[in-house]
Amino acid sequence: MPSYNLKGNNSYYLNPYYITGFVDAEGCFTTSIFKDSRMSTKWQVKAIFSISLHNKDIKILEAIQRTWGVGKIYKHGKDSVVYRVSSLKNLTVILNHFDKYPLITHKLADFLLFKQSISLIERKEHLTEGGLLKLVGIKDVLNWGLSEKFKESFPNIIPAVRPEIKPTQIKNIWWLIGFVEGEGCFMVIAQESKNKTTHNISLRFTITQHVRDSVLIDSFLNYLGCGRCYSSRNEVTFIVSTFSDINNKIIPLFKKYPLLGTKQEDYLDFLKVASLIVSKEHLSKEGVEKIKILQSNMNSKR
């Protein structure tokens, strides 16, 4: 099944594994708890699934919305948009998706906690003091936890037990494509030589994730048959920098399984630079200038 089928202009329907991979990279499961004097507990509770992106990638969110048939897209700040699902009825679609096509990073723990929260809300336990405290305890171990200011309102909460996630493997290539859409990076490196007469041109493909998912990231070595991994502070990075691997494995992979967002444009520029290297044009001054122009419009500079 392709990553997306084109049904007319900008009418993409996404492969479910692509969505799971993308959510593993960019999705957020959270419970919003805020003061509301109308409630018996004086607190309102709302479960929210969201994905925030730069507005240049809004068509990814539109494709997810179209595929699932639920949720809304909102402007979120000057340069970003957010896809959000918050009604219990629509959240059932989200829960069913991830039950069938599971997350494989540690975000799975957030999803399982999110399900616990929704279950409490469906049973209307959030309308009781005890239920509210359970929800706050779950929120305390969800994502990055509670702010210090929020904790002041619930000084005696008991944090929930965060589910232990066992390392797993990639089950479908479209998961990887979706994950790269969120966390991957195509880079062109142009380093001037010491005598400033020539340039060393190289390509790098990287995927970076929190170190807690190091086992999964390490598995990319065998899955893709190339690359290396290194850790730095709280991050682990998978990197492919050998040109033969770039040209024979990475480039063909994304030619067969194209990306949907603006990262596809980075890939196409990456491909152009690879072609210049293959033809040896990168050894000429004119070739280097072409590469510098392509490089100047990639990634955050686009």
Core attributes:
302 residues; single chain; alpha+beta; disordered N terminus; 10 strands; four-stranded antiparallel sheet
Description:
- This protein is α+β, with helices and mostly antiparallel strands.
- 43% of the residues lie in helices and 23% in strands.
- It is built from eleven helices and ten strands.
- The strands form three sheets. A four-stranded antiparallel β-sheet has the order 3-4-6-5. The protein has a four-stranded antiparallel β-sheet with strand order 7-8-10-9. A two-stranded antiparallel ribbon has the order 1-2.
- A hairpin with a 4-residue loop joins strand 5 and strand 6.
- Helix 4 runs antiparallel to helix 5 and helix 10 runs antiparallel to helix 11.
- The radius of gyration is 22 Å and the shape is elongated.
- The N terminus is likely disordered.
Could you list the spans in which at least 5 consecutive residues all have pLDDT below 50? 1-9
SSE order in H/E notation?
EEHEEHEEHHHHHEEHEEHHH
State the shape: elongated
Total beta strands = 10
Mean pLDDT: 92
Largest sheet: 4 strands, antiparallel
Radius of gyration: 22 Å
